Each structure stands twice: as C-alpha cells, then as structure tokens.
Amino acid sequence: MDKKIISQGKTTNEAIENGLKELKVSKDMVEIKVIEEEKRSFYNILAPRVVKVELTLKENNNKEKKEEKINKKTNENEEEIKKGLENIEKFLKVFLKKDMNYTAEIKEYDIYVNINGDNLNCLIGYRGENINAMQTILSSIANRESTSKIRVYLDIAGYREKRLKTLEDLAEKIARTVVRTGKSVTLEPMTAYERKIIHTKLQDHNKVKTFSKGEEPYRKVVITLK
User: Fold this and answer.
1) Residue spans in the chain of domains classed CATH 3.30.300.20
2) Do the Cβ atoms of 182 and 176 come closer than 8 Å?
3) How far apart are CA 208 and CA 174, in angstroms?
C-alpha cells in the first residue's frame, strides 16, 4: 500500500471519502491536505467542480504490529525483579481466596504468575476483562520500586492459551468469509494483546490483510481483501 495518494471529488469531503475508500482506512489514520480546488469562472460555470486532496498514512499505521509492540527496555536488574516478585507474592497471599493457589517465577527477566483453584471465573471475567485488569495491577505492584519496566504475565487456569486458540480460529474463519464474499469484516473491540493475535495469525495470508481502527478501548481489527 502506498503511503500517499491523491484523491479527488466534487467537494472536499467527497474527495477525502474517495481516498479513504481507496486506502481502506479510517480518517484518523491519515493526514489530509487540500492541494487543488478548481474554481469555476463565469465562462465555465457549467463545468463540474473538482477538489483534489492528498492523503498520507500516518507513520504508526504502516504496520499494526509496530503499534502493538512493547518497545520499553526490559529491566535486567535482578535485585529489582526479585523485589517485584516479592511484592506480587505479598499481594496475592492477601488477595486470593483459600481455595485458590498460585505460582510465581522469574524467566528471562520477566515475571510469570499462574493462578489455579476453584471458582476462578470471577478472576477471568467476560472475555478476559478481569484477568487483563489484574495483570495491570500486578505489573504496577512489581514496578513500584523499579527504575525501569518489569514485564509481568498473568495466566489463570490456562485461560491465555485457550483464548489464543479461540482468536486464531476466529481469524481463520473470518478470513475465509472475507475471501468468499469479497467484503471486509470488522471485529468487536479488543485489547492490544488480542488484536496482535489476529494480526499475527493473518500476517502471511496471501489473500487478506488486517488493520485496526478506532480509539481505545473500542479499537477494532478489520479484515479485508488485499
């Protein structure tokens, strides 16, 4: 896809809409510049009015995977990571119910927490809303005394792996629908983590492509023909 195109129409809005359709993106993903507006004189008043606009894709929209990538430097301070793990364990011992247990360990400078037990649906929430919120809380606890970012990954009863499989199956199913019908499909709003799963699954597909549109927390993945 070109980063810049020239589009035209009878009005500025029409020219912009024509360009957005050609690029298959939303208005918030481009920079717009009116470059030419042919004004009608008395002698050519019956001639159609033409407006030309230049649409330039914003740099951070070129590849969605760049948007989703965590670019903060990994904390390699072992003492800080151990302290972060210690703070997480203190929190979990108080927070979790007696019928729940956890494991927490450090792997390659990151902290991995896994919770198991009974009645865990309340911790997972609808489509992972609670588990994502809890991961954010644990990350904040781990980073409270650190000088650079410590990454924390939370899983509950294998939910992450199951959700990964569900989203990958969904991506393949929607891709087949798009190829069969020729129509783009917009998925429901997802977190950055879940959008990345969809993008990654279809990034090498020979007939469809993906991009995201909208603002958080309502940002959605669009699957369309190449």
Assistant:
1) 78-157
2) no
3) 10
SS (H, E, C) 30-93: EEEEEEEEECCCHHHCCCCCEEEEEEEECHHHCCHHHHHCCCCCCCCCHHHHHHHHHHHHHHHH
Estimate to the nearest angstrom the gap between the alpha carbon of 56 and the chain centroid.
Answer: 21
Q: To the nearest whole percent, how much of the chain has pLDDT over 70?
A: 86
The predicted structure's pLDDT at residue 67: 45
Does the pLDDT at position 176 exceed 90?
Answer: yes
Tell me which of 9 and 1 has the higher pLDDT: 9
pTM over 0.70: no
Letter string b/e over residues 84-119, b meaning 16 or more CB atoms within 10 A of that residue's CB: bbebbeeebeeeeeeebebebeeeeeebbbbbeeee
pLDDT beyond 70 at 171: yes
- The Cα–Cα gap between 211 and 220 comes to 8
Contact 25, 61 (CB under 8 A): yes
CATH code of domain 78-157:
3.30.300.20
Q: Please report the pLDDT score of residue 152 as a whole number.
A: 95
CATH superfamily of 162-225: R3H-like domain (3.30.1370.50)
How do residues 63-87 score in pLDDT, each as one tens digit?
444 444 444 467 888 999 999 999 9
